[in-house]
């Protein structure tokens, strides 16, 4: 991820150059928060330029609930079919992109093709998360002057603010993926039977008053801040370091390059995404 940083900044600068050139107002979701993470994940994964729109169309449909389960299933089949072909075609590749690494690993017998596709799919789909999580962050920074002030006046303490925003933001519209109990477990007087699905809410955990005093308040100086925004245990978010890198670059670059950045509409007129798994503003019309 450290090696990726200069290239990531370059890709983001190209997008922001165009925003500056076109002059305000601009929808920063459309012009930055959406294209940047998608382009960067595609670059890391090794999606050829000609396939990027198609791949993005599928990943967007998979995390959306608007077309129903059938449309999401169709998109998932298409994406996974494409991934299988791509991994196969890179069996001899020495590239450093994820599809090349997986292709070479399958060819070398280190893992099965099914495992490789199962690893790559969620990574490709997970790339969508930053757009919406960072959208919520930007909305908060643009609507709460005290947070904006902290961001601008205390660059050395930005990490703490980012962690507090990650804790505070309800990333998902629902509780998340189920775990299936492998054996009977007794927990605080409840019996969970083997085979039962269990839903664990990271969102509720992030507002636990026993761990986070005044949990509904955003306190950029909160320490310690053991939030679970990226999950916990074996399924801890694979993309956490990439997500942090993208978020930090996006916020730093947008505030630096667009001086006086502010919403171009009243805050209560910002439209929010509906019928989708990940919460976030649909658009962020801004001026500067
Ligand atoms: C701010 C952005 C993000 C947030 C808040 C986030 C949050 C999470 C959370 C809470 C989980 C755990 C789910 C569970 O336990 O059931 C998770 C898993 C995962 N995330 Fe992220 N994520 C973000 C960005 C990304 C990005 C950019 C990628 C990929 C490029 C990614 C890839 C994944 C993958 C592959 C998993 C599944 C890990 C596994 O099951 O072993 N995420 N993410």
TrEMBL record:
Q: Which domain of life is it from?
A: Bacteria
Q: Name the InterPro entries on file.
A: Cyt_P450 (IPR001128), Cyt_P450_B (IPR002397), Cyt_P450_sf (IPR036396)
Q: Which Gene3D superfamilies match?
A: Cytochrome P450
What family is it from? Belongs to the cytochrome P450 family.
What name does UniProt use for this protein?
A: Cytochrome P450
Originating species: Streptomyces lomondensis
